[in-house]
Specification:
The structure is a homotrimer of 650-residue chains.
Chain A: E1 2-6, H1 17-27, E2 31-34, H2 39-42, H3 52-62, E3 67-71, H4 79-84, H5 111-128, E4 134-138, H6 154-168, H7 171-178, H8 205-233, E5 238-243, H9 252-256, E6 261-266, H10 268-274, H11 279-284, H12 293-302, E7 307-313, H13 331-341, E8 346-349, H14 375-390, E9 400-403, H15 406-414, H16 423-435, E10 441-444, E11 455-458, H17 466-473, E12 478-481, E13 509-516, E14 523-526, E15 532-544, E16 550-552, E17 557-562, E18 565-568, E19 570-572, H18 574-588, E20 599-604, E21 607-612, E22 618-619, E23 632-634, E24 638-639, E25 644-648
Parallel strand pairs in A: 1-2, 1-8, 2-3, 3-4, 4-5, 5-6, 6-7, 7-8, 9-10, 9-11, 11-12, 12-18
Antiparallel strand pairs in A: 13-15, 14-15, 14-16, 15-19, 16-17, 17-18, 20-21, 21-25, 22-24, 23-25
Chain lengths: 650, 650, 650
């Protein structure tokens, strides 16, 4: 695994570049991302390109054998371009143009901006596409950040109508698919369809869902247009885009089909502060990050492209969360090994030197604004040295797959039915349940090859199509389904045979009635063992000849099994989920480990990586590590705070 | 009491209609509401009417002896009409048109839409006005739902200026009535008056109040225009409109003067979840509904027209509350008897079959989407059978009246003075206090005939006019007034003699100073008995020669009596209110019953109806029921969970 | 100290004016403010002035020897003026004009309104500038109230661009100062700069800060234009403007340079209810006000102009807070003495008679709407009588200064970095810490003369310029700095040498890293004594050779000293601050008193004023008062609830 850094030569005097490059190399970094916000320096006036500085920056980095990831600068169209073509601006749901003054102010549907995006990408690719130092390209930056996938512009409206015509053919097919007879919402022509905003009350969920899909497709198209140019003019280079965390506004799996490497921007402390985790957890992991939040995303983006990496790794306090604590000593190193353990191809720290100006001036870098090393610089150096000794190891296939589809998340966003029913949260809770048992998890699209897994969990399988149902019916693996599986057709209707709809082929069960519950009203579940566990937020009454494996106080089944398919009628709390998973893994002879709350284990090749997220010591043996200190390639049987231990499986 | 159902034949294949009608009849239903969202099917293109399907639907229902309540479809003007006349759209307070895409997107002041509303009403009435199966008409659907009474359109502005000219005659009269000299808000002409929105800070409350009154009048006019057509073209049919719960944006009493039956849409679980009740109560009545919330509305709408009924009764989980639990077994039957006990003329379940598409696809019906019976179907069947045996009984006049005027609610909305001071909440708490003592309550407008009542309670009598004061002074009944009674003139000014203003004719007392208090600062009241009770949110210091019957810690009077008039200077908590009511009813020789928290009692003719809202058994005797099981016409001395018992008073 | 009242003769029949004036004089008032909302009566039609009524009002007041404070009526431009020139209206951040209908609807940048403001001011000054009864002028009313400093109008945009050109000269200087290279935000010309609103995410903080400064300058200009006319046409009269509480949107120190008296509008109960104080404190001081909230503002505005006073003193319940309790008996008198103790030149009660109409009809006055005395009238009368016996005393210089600059507050508003980090709150907590030790405090601008102080505390010294650093380095006083001191350049950049930047001249210390913390994550600090105290919200790691005087659990220093300069790396809780202040004052031989929680002490000349904010008795001796009752000029050794005691220092 390589280490790298994000660098903005245009922010610093040219006289410092050489020294910066030397220090990067000295730390042991080998990758540098540049360029993604530099449009106003590349093209300060319309059509007037200034390449000299970038030529020089790339040469300087190359002279230290640093490989360059070059970013297309389309996340920040300059002011002159906006003034020249205001139709580039995205439009918010109230019809207001989203103004210049920060970044990402463009509309993905703008044909003007599509041309400009290709023009600047072509210009860069023509200039640097064949440069030896350029080994990777990053398209744009953080698609969708700041709520920018959905735009309500005139061009979005025109494109949406075309998209609908392509999808439905005739307006009657659309009317039927959406159920527009309800509330006299029927259209006579595609030109009558508006963007879903500003209505008096809830819009037709089919309308909203299709707009989500359309908007995602615009991102896919936008990205693909850049990728096509890059592949053409810069063959042999890896193309990536840096995804974000807790973000599902476009289909990352589809964007990923155009990428060689899926990268993402990992900010463990910022994400924890902004997450809906309980206050106690936020306090407990204030300066370490939550043991599963980053890992979930690592595994999610692992499933998006042939390789994955971290384009931006938090190196210290950031500027954008409500509260921005400092990582504990050693934690940046731990995060680096967390990525390593999950198979990253590289980890880039963000950023090289803390900028003393503008929006992110309180965002730490490897260097402080006065160019002294920040604490993370030393941790990066340690990682680089250690990693060079570890050698190459590839991530293998896990025993367990977790299916997560973006389309399903949108189904739940559009009509959650229970206010707290969030598709990402339910997936992350399922993931945590698996990870605390020491299991590796492949988070995958339902379109992924599912062969070879022993256990497939699907917390949000809202709307499986016929092909998927067929594939699931042919699975050797055990399949664990959460409530709402198969509860909608792809047009956002309830299946004719009631949920789980086409999954009834796998499971002789019919959901007769559902209820959503406030968080203050948990459901007590009695397990086969007689023990009491908890469920929450959702409960389904089913019709079936199956005997439930667990039931609630009213006697309604909470857990059903039909052959290798298991179905939950409710959202399990940790204790309930744990009992289910222990039962399944025991049957499947998948080995589990009862990990301490703060310790996590992962596998890369024959290496076993253990991390201690707590501020106290922990024992590596609790994660299955050997007692013999000699057997460790890193660390040993005792894990200090933020400790990392690695041994080879025999 | 008849039972019925809401049905949307346009949602289903014509081939299913006959079977649907048969099953309705088989359950014992005799009423079916149709048509209120069907404009795009009646008139799919401008001026092109398609009656065939509706002819057929009505014939099919009639063939099973089902009476039809036909709804005018004006809540959902179709897209072609909006595109043709965008001035139909309501405008929000920021000046943005409220878009097509759901329902109720029209402005009540739009002259274009007034014409269209009459045109489509006339077309339907001409077609079906004399049809034997049509026994009722429903105008539009849920006026004001989704915050649609107030519209800030250009037409609303023009109509508002006319309305003001009609009300005030000259601009100087308006300036004086509003006190516009304050902050130099004086106008020189009616054409200078704007709609009350967008100002830098609070608008003149007189301005805001008059806009509320004007907007209510637009609803009244809109409804009356339809009613006039229906009375003309469809004589002998009952006209109704379906009101909502927790909704006070127009004057239901005035709309009610044009109706034969006031109906409303009763959703006990959804309303509880969205209500400001404490979390414990929401948990306690999660799957049963609160014992007084529906009943309050039953009695409120009972006071709006010669008859009242339920147009939409929740039959299972709904889709629109933050959380949507399933009713406990038997609870739909209990709700049906709750309506019966309060005198309903019919109860219509909403809806026949759960629609698998569009906005309300998660809203339960009597049938599931797969056409199987949902649990409520069985409960409806049981009710139908039982009710047929009970025979006819009319609701009598109660001993107690509770005055609730919409105008008073608007007074409190416009300037609550204490953030939590809500006119509907104070009325509902007064109502609950009475109901837990086993009392029937007539909730009435102050314009109602008050003769014959023994006790009249007025929790929100903000602004009685001279005529009302005269009528109150002639009351035989005891009158119990809450704070703020008579505290404003009809123009929203403080009376010259201070509150209670003209009510000083009845009560020798002057409110010298008022204070509003945070919920965290309750007031301890010492009762005549020496016991301590609580009050909240509001306290008045009065000047009077009367001795207070109860006082706070500072010695300020909390409860005064002058002859048959009682006055509270503070908002009583349950314990305080209970002592007051026990004192008054004891003096008045009104019999009370100390009901268990979850049990309610009501009277219809000589029937006594008792309901158990708890999940435990309760004793009917605790509600005054006989111990002899033989004396019951329904149920018996023990009430199971969701139990109903009815006996005849001797 | 004089007492006065705010009066609106235009609200009342002319026949009552004489009686009103007599009663004012009889109470002992000698000042009356009039006129500030009367534009529509002065100029009911364009150019048509009606002075008769105001002539008469002034004569009537003068006949009772009442001095008049005459307000320019520019806070309420009348409707005809707005209709004639809609460009007067302020524009909100979404681009919507802020409508007529309340007050303060004008944009400070509007050249039309600048002309109108001067026209009406000149008209009034020409009419009354030489009138003997006119002793003071008030410009406008409560600049900025209802969030009106920031306006996003076209004129604001033009003026902002000019302002930037004046400040930066060339666009390249601006680009560098703002760091616009970040995110390609560079401009090619000042005409490309927009107002900072509507961007997709956070704007450049330098951009936002400069707009705050510009907007403040517009207020300064607006006020100065009126002042210049008044000084010209009404020489010898004191000019004031009435500031508000908890309000920092413009630089009051700069506006104050144009005033003779800084006045403010003091509403202790309303401010407490709207403040972020904990609920327990709000309950404790519900009807008395918080002992330091008003005092802080007294001392803040004392530092803004040669003299200070209260233009509006709450006399009873108000109308504008979420909850509006009634002051306890005696509390209006206590507030009057609180102002006296802090050196007020006058206290004006707001308002004479409670208006029965319009927005503030629930706002108490000295008289009730029925013209009877409200409780405050008696308290004012008592104050007038007592004050006449106390004679003249001037406030002296305190031992302690607290520096508070508005520019620093804006720095923290623009990028708080920790959500709860509020510059006004940290200043008020520092102030409370000093006041509970019985210390007088001069709250001053950093531009004030700091000589003579023994202790200077600076809780928010974000961006000291070179001149200030020089002055601080020459201080004899001990200087106590909070975290973030010197953390930004005036252009909103991190200093090249890291914080505290230029203050490193005084303090050999470098802030290497900062973190912000959630309120739920306090920091435990170990004091030199070994005792444990608390800090919160913020922590800095520093590089220094100094030994910390206190440190956190990680060993990071929390309190450093270098000679007479002390530096805190964290926001101290009360217990921590108290220990620091006791240490410093002990060293500096500043006498402190361990005041009870509810008692405060202040000094005016040789008078010592003690106030009891509690509802229980307190001992004056606990505030250093003599035991001999004879030594008191007011009150005595025992303070009743709301009690005031004054003695002469010997």
């Amino acid at each position: 695994m390589r280490l790298g850094v994000c660098y903005y030569p245009e922010h610093w005097p040219q006289s410092e570049w050489r020294n910066d490059a030397r220090r990067m190399a000295d730390i042991g970094l080998s990758l540098v991302r540049i360029g993604e916000f530099s449009w106003s320096r590349i093209e300060p006036n319309p059509g007037q390109f200034e390449w000299d500085w970038m030529d020089e920056a790339i040469e300087t980095l190359a002279s230290e054998n640093l490989s360059v990831i070059l970013g297309t600068p389309t996340a920040t169209p300059p002011k002159w371009l906006i003034d020249q073509s205001p139709d580039i601006l995205a439009v918010d749901r109230h019809g207001r143009a989203r103004a210049f003054g920060s970044r990402r102010h463009y509309c993905f549907s703008s044909s003007t901006y599509r041309s400009e995006s290709q023009r600047i990408t072509r210009a860069m690719a023509e200039r640097y596409g064949q440069h030896d130092a350029i080994t990777h390209w990053q398209t744009d930056n953080e698609y969708g950040c700041h709520n920018t996938v959905l735009s309500y512009s005139d061009q979005a409206l025109q494109r949406f109508r075309e998209w609908l015509r392509d999808r439905y053919g005739t307006i009657q097919v659309l009317n039927d698919a959406w159920g527009n007879v309800f509330w006299s919402m029927e259209y006579r022509d595609f030109s009558e369809v508006d963007l879903p905003t500003g209505a008096v009350t809830e819009l037709n969920p089919s309308h909203s869902l299709d707009f989500r899909r359309f908007s995602s497709d615009m991102v896919v198209e936008f990205n693909r247009e850049q990728v096509n140019i890059l592949r053409d003019l810069s063959p042999g280079r890896a193309v990536t885009h840096n995804f974000m965390g807790y973000f599902t506004d476009f289909d990352h799996h589809t964007v990923g089909t155009d990428l060689d490497i899926a990268t993402w921007d990992a900010y463990p402390l910022g994400f924890l502060d902004m997450s809906p985790r309980p206050r106690d957890e936020k306090r407990q992991w204030l300066r370490t990050g939550h043991p599963d939040l980053m890992a979930f995303h690592h595994d999610l983006y692992h499933g998006c492209a042939p390789k994955w990496g971290i384009m931006e790794q938090q190196p210290g306090p950031v500027n954008w969360a409500p509260h921005n604590p400092a990582p504990n000593p050693g934690i940046v190193r731990l995060w680096t090994y967390e990525a390593f353990g999950h198979g990253a191809t590289f980890v880039n720290y963000f950023r090289w030197r803390q900028a003393p100006f503008a929006q992110e001036q309180m965002h730490a870098g490897l260097l402080r604004p006065d160019s002294e090393d920040a604490p993370a610089a030393g941790e990066a150096r340690a990682c680089a040295e250690e990693l060079s000794r570890l050698g190459g190891h590839e991530r293998g296939r896990a025993d367990v797959a977790l299916i997560f589809d973006y389309d399903d998340k949108w189904f739940l966003d559009v009509q959650p039915q229970g206010r707290e029913y969030n598709g990402l949260i339910v997936a992350m809770e399922a993931y945590s349940g698996l990870r605390t048992l020491g299991l590796d998890v492949d988070v995958v699209s339902s379109r992924a090859d599912l062969s070879g897994y022993k256990l497939v969990v699907a917390p949000t399988l809202m709307s499986p199509d016929a092909a998927l149902v067929t594939r699931l019916s042919q699975l050797d693996a055990t399949l664990l389904l959460w409530p709402r599986a198969g509860s909608k057709t792809t047009s956002y209707q309830i299946p004719k045979t009631l949920p789980p709809g086409p999954l009834q082929e796998l499971l002789p069960l019919k959901v007769a009635r559902v209820e959503s519950l406030p968080p203050a009203c948990p459901v007590e579940i009695t397990m086969p063992s007689g023990s009491k566990v908890s469920a929450k937020l959702w409960f389904e009454e089913v019709e079936t000849d199956l005997e439930p494996l667990a039931a609630d106080e009213r006697g309604y089944g909470a857990w059903y099994q039909a052959g290798n398919v298991h179905y939950l009628t409710t959202w399990p709390e940790d204790d309930f989920l744990r009992e289910i998973l222990l039962t399944l893994t025991s049957t499947l002879e998948i080995e589990t480990i009862d990990l301490p709350k703060d310790v996590r284990l992962s596998r890369r090749g024959d290496l076993r990586i253990t991390l201690n997220f707590s501020e106290q010591e922990a024992s590596t043996e609790a994660a299955g590590g050997p007692s013999d200190p000699e057997r460790y390639v890193l660390g040993g049987p005792t894990l200090g705070p933020a400790g990392v231990a690695i041994w080879k499986a025999t």
